[in-house]
Amino acid sequence: MWTVRVAHISKIVRSVKAFTRELNRQETILDIPLPAPPPPPKIGIALGGGFARGLAHIGVLRVLQEEGIPIDFVAGTSVGSIVGASFCSGISAREMQEIAAIVRFKDFARWSLNKLGFCTSDRMDRFLCKIVKCKTFEELNIPLAVVATDLTTGEGVVFRSGPIVEAVRASCAYPGMFQPVRVNGRLLVDGMLAHAVPTTPLRDMGADRVLAVYLSAHWVNLKGPRHVFDVIGQCFSIAQAKMSGIWKRDADLVIEPNVDGFAYDGFDRATDLIRAGENSIREVVPTIHQWMKVAEIPLGSATRVVSEKSVKPAISAEPSGLSA
């Protein structure tokens, strides 16, 4: 009898000890700190060229600001470099909209026939100094890349340091209209020739997700070109469409505001152009918000979404084999 009781008590003791060991093990597990959640993806936005149509970029940026979507990197070509430099220097999209409402072609260009172009860019310098709050790339609030094209080699030239105005002026040197700009011994023209939409520089800067804003305006004037700049503009549109397969490789999301019917110098339609940008980005805001949920969507697996225009492209967007 006594032996049975001792055996029973011993069994209880062993059970208590086993329970205690398991409890201690669980406490040890609970004491191990959980790994920190991964940081949200770094988002970059590429702003393509398009002259006055580039005012649509302001609408895109305004909606992103209103939605609280952070932009970590910006890259701009041509007019995209003007909007990008202003934004990165601390000017809000709302402030840019106020400037756009009163700006006209004469504010940054002066007709002056020259063997290399029809306009001088001296007014461009003054205009940029007024709207860009920083003098150098190093002073900017958001890292910026400005793209131009080497007229001799055809290579893309990416500015990420040094004076901002000089780089933007080179990026905006629209062939035939503005005279080429010489920087560090290289003769530079509009960045659209090498990087129609500068997505690759954003990847080089460290962007995990890339938004690409493409300003493709299709031919709507059935009576033909009005003047030489209509001809040049249409040539640019064709080149852009043919090169789209190249820059889209580095884009996670392509936003294409409907800017058909807007003239290259249509600055008087700023309100409509900005609205076109707002409408195009609102369609894909839910997708961008999903990017921020990094636990649900691993980096590198973004779905490419194109905001369709109401008018279908007249030119198929196929790779041209060109490279910067």
UniProtKB/TrEMBL annotation:
InterPro entries (UniProt xref): Acyl_Trfase/lysoPLipase (IPR016035), NTE (IPR050301), PNPLA_dom (IPR002641)
Active site: 78 (nucleophile), 190 (proton acceptor)
Superkingdom: Bacteria
PROSITE patterns reported in the protein's UniProt record: PNPLA
The keyword Lipid metabolism is assigned to this record: yes
Every PNPLA domain range: 45-203
GO molecular function: hydrolase activity
One GO BP annotation of this record: lipid catabolic process
Sequence motif GXSXG, location on chain: 76-80
Keywords associated with the record: Hydrolase, Lipid degradation, Lipid metabolism
Lipid metabolism keyword on record: yes
UniProt xrefs under PANTHER family: NEUROPATHY TARGET ESTERASE/SWISS CHEESE D.MELANOGASTER, NTE FAMILY PROTEIN RSSA
Protein name: Patatin
